[in-house]
Amino acid sequence: QVQLVESGGGLVQPGGSLRLSCAVSGRTLSNYAMGWFRQAPGKERFVVAAISRSGVSTTYGDSVKGRFTISRDIAKNTVYLQMNSLKPEDTGVYYCAADTNYNQVLQRYGADYWGKGTLVTVSS
Hints:
This protein is 4% helix and 48% strand. By secondary structure, the chain is mainly β. The strands form 2 sheets. Strands 2, 4, 5, 6, 9, 10 and 11 form a 7-stranded mixed β-sheet that branches. A hairpin with a 6-residue loop joins β4 (33-39) and β5. It is globular, with a radius of gyration of 13 Å. It starts with a strand and ends with a strand. 31% of the residues are buried.
């Protein structure tokens, strides 16, 4: 079994930055494609960023391209989401997801494993 624990959320002003972390336990990170999803109140969950098992391929949602960066540290078994130039519309619960199949990670509810989420609020 894979356990995912997100951290790093909080309240930030528009234009600010946050870095989210997703600690992976139970399996080696290099065996999994990873994704970050956002769900705002009353809205559907959607993929913000994803990274393949090899780490070579990344995917970003249109609304975050150029502002967010997904990365990983294999030695720490951790995936990160660096969020810059934050906007109020970036507010929501951010979930980490894992699957051995990259295409599954890109699907809204396709991944096998999910964390419980961390709340990000962008507000002045």
